[in-house]
Specification:
This protein has 563 residues and is of the alpha/beta class. Helix content is 40%, strand content 13%. The chain starts with a helix and ends with a helix. The structure holds calcium ion. InterPro entries: Alkaline_phosphatase_core_sf, Phosphodiest/P_Trfase, SGSH_C, Sulfatase_CS.
Length: 563
């Protein structure tokens, strides 16, 4: 009897153990791989799944064809490193502390890769992070130092120290990614891979193979290329993002420094010629010869045309030069995304893999006469987002819901069946991805930009954005409110804040904005804390980074001392 009981007991244990093991194996099999592809400053206007006026991106578009295109995705703070911090932490800038590009990321923050790694995911990151420190929670990483370089870039690596790799950055980051998938990925673990491009970040150096094609193309100008900012307040007028007056002739538009001297063109800042030497100066002899072949011609044509160019002609010329180089770098991104998708298909990795393509924010491609980002206006507030998950997300679907970079962390944790920490501030996108749209209730998002005074001089502002309106407060060395009617004024040219017809809407939005600030824990005290940190640091350095109009900056410091 004892013997029988004993065998039943151990038999049950064995069954139990078997059951657990099966459950565990099933759970592991169910847990999806995650490939997070992000480019730097890639505007949705330059992805053909959104709009093919400027460029065809057939490979990036494949992700939308396999899955979902989000037409209303946005960021909480439109600048590089803060966006990355929000993605990793699932928290707004004022909570994770990474409010601007200046101070390093606080690594005591908990990030979703750390949580996934603890839960048994194999994790890797290749490309641009831009944090001022190395990422936590990664089994493998090879990242660019700071902004990184387009040609023959340096990398900070987890296991090989600092290395320099010969070649073009977008190809190299992809080579590293494919090498990891092929040689380091473990078949018995789900993986989370962050594949992060530097392109199409300034100063926009296309790969050798694309230079000739793109320097010979002409692109359609945006309707607001010659915006005079009437209808908006000081923030738009005082920003330094104009293609003609704020873009570097040499570093950005690739006018050779000696041609600038010959034509008597003064640089837009001390950095103008330096940026050219810093980037083009890295090329080896062969790369430089290929570069010169195309760009010498650009310079020769420019030399002939310049003496008779009007200011309008110059603006148009700079727009074309900007688009040729910016879009040229995107061509290589698209080709390389294609290489990764091909690899996944060829190796049966498509089925249970979430594939994301996004950017750390949007970008102005000449709209409002601008380049760069920072403002809550659409081109920089919105960001591309394409997500595939074959079998789970309906192919070719679309969502116009207001999703944000704040939502990635909780989405990935939910997909992996892990409960997110309660202090994360986003929402899982799974209901939208799997068609349970009634579970999605968000009707407004919050935005807060901080980095001022700084390069491009975009004033500090916070905002509430609904599908119909934007209510924006520019503060610090100004106190201006802006109300945009998104449906009636899609190009965002007119502030209707003082229009009596909007009095009720304005009052309602103010109330909603207060509620949102309370919900996310933002306040004027926190805003002041970040102003003090920033100005203390600037004062310590006794210098100022990047502004052309130093009178504004001097005034800020005078007022501060007078307080
Ligand atoms: Ca960026």
């Amino acid at each position: 009897m004892k013997h029988i009981l004993k065998s039943i007991f151990f038999g049950s244990l064995a069954i139990l153990a078997f059951a657990c093991k099966t459950e565990e194996a099933e759970k592991t099999a169910e847990r999806p791989n995650i490939i997070f592809i992000m480019s730097d400053d890639h505007a949705y206007q330059a992805i053909s799944a959104y709009d093919n006026t400027l460029i065809e991106t057939p490979n990036i578009d494949r992700i939308a064809k396999m899955g979902m295109l989000f037409t209303n995705a946005s960021v909480t703070n439109s600048i590089c490193a803060p966006s990355r911090a929000t993605i990793l932490t699932g928290k707004h800038s004022h909570i994770n502390g990474k409010v601007d590009n200046h101070f390093p990321f606080d690594t005591t923050n908990v990030t979703f890769p750390q949580i996934l790694q603890d839960a048994g995911y194999q994790t890797a990151m290749f490309g641009k992070l831009h944090f001022g420190n190395s990422p936590k929670g990664f089994d493998q990483f090879k990242i660019l130092p700071g902004q990184g370089a387009y040609y023959n870039p340096d990398f900070i690596t987890k296991n090989e120290g600092n290395i320099k790799v010969e070649g073009y950055v977008t190809d190299i980051i992809t080579d590293m990614t494919l090498d990891w998938l092929q040689n380091e990925r473990k078949a018995d673990q789900p993986f989370m891979l962050m594949y992060l491009h530097k392109a199409p970040h300034r100063e926009w150096l296309p790969a050798e193979r694309h230079i000739d094609e793109f320097t010979n193309r002409t692109f359609k100008e945006p309707a607001t290329l010659f915006d005079d900012y009437s209808g908006r307040g000081r923030a738009a007028h005082e920003a330094e993002m104009n293609l003609l007056t704020d873009m570097h002739w040499s570093g950005d538009s690739k006018v050779y420094p000696e041609v600038m001297d010959e034509l008597g063109i003064e640089g837009t800042s001390d950095w103008d010629k330096g940026a050219f030497d810093r980037e083009v100066g890295r090329m080896n002899a062969e790369q430089r010869a290929n570069w010169d072949k195309a760009y010498m011609k650009v310079n020769e044509d420019f030399k002939k045309a310049y003496p008779t160019m009007t200011e309008e002609d110059k603006m148009k010329w700079r727009y074309q030069r900007y688009m040729q180089d910016y879009l040229g770098t995107i061509k290589a991104v698209d080709e390389n995304v294609g290489r990764v998708l091909d690899y996944l298909e060829a190796n049966d990795l498509m089925e249970n893999t979430i594939i994301v393509y996004t950017s750390d924010q949007g970008f102005y491609l000449g709209e409002h006469g601008w380049f760069d980002k920072r403002f809550v206006y659409n081109e920089s507030f919105k960001t591309p987002l394409l997500m595939a998950w074959p079998g789970k997300v309906k192919a070719g679907s679309k969502s116009d819901e207001m999703v944000q970079n704040l939502d990635f962390a909780q989405t990935f944790l939910a997909a992996a069946g892990i409960e997110a920490p309660s202090d994360m501030q986003g929402e899982s996108l799974l209901p939208l991805l799997t068609g349970e749209t009634d579970k999605w209730t968000r009707d407004a998002v919050y935005y807060h930009y901080y980095e001022y005074p700084s390069v491009h001089m975009v004033k500090r502002h916070y905002a509430i954005i609904t599908k119909e309106y934007k209510l924006v407060h520019y503060y610090f060395d100004t106190d201006e409110w802006e109300l945009i009617d998104r449906n009636k004024d899609p190009m965002e040219l007119t502030n209707v804040y003082d229009d009596p017809a909007y009095a009720e809407i304005r009052a309602d939005l103010h109330k909603q904005l207060d509620d949102l600030r309370e919900k996310y824990g933002d306040s004027s005290e926190l805003s002041q804390k970040y102003i003090d940190m920033y100005l203390d640091d600037l004062a310590d350095r006794k210098g100022f980074f990047g502004a052309k109009d130093t009178t504004l900056v001097n005034k800020i410091f005078e007022n501060r001392e007078g307080k």
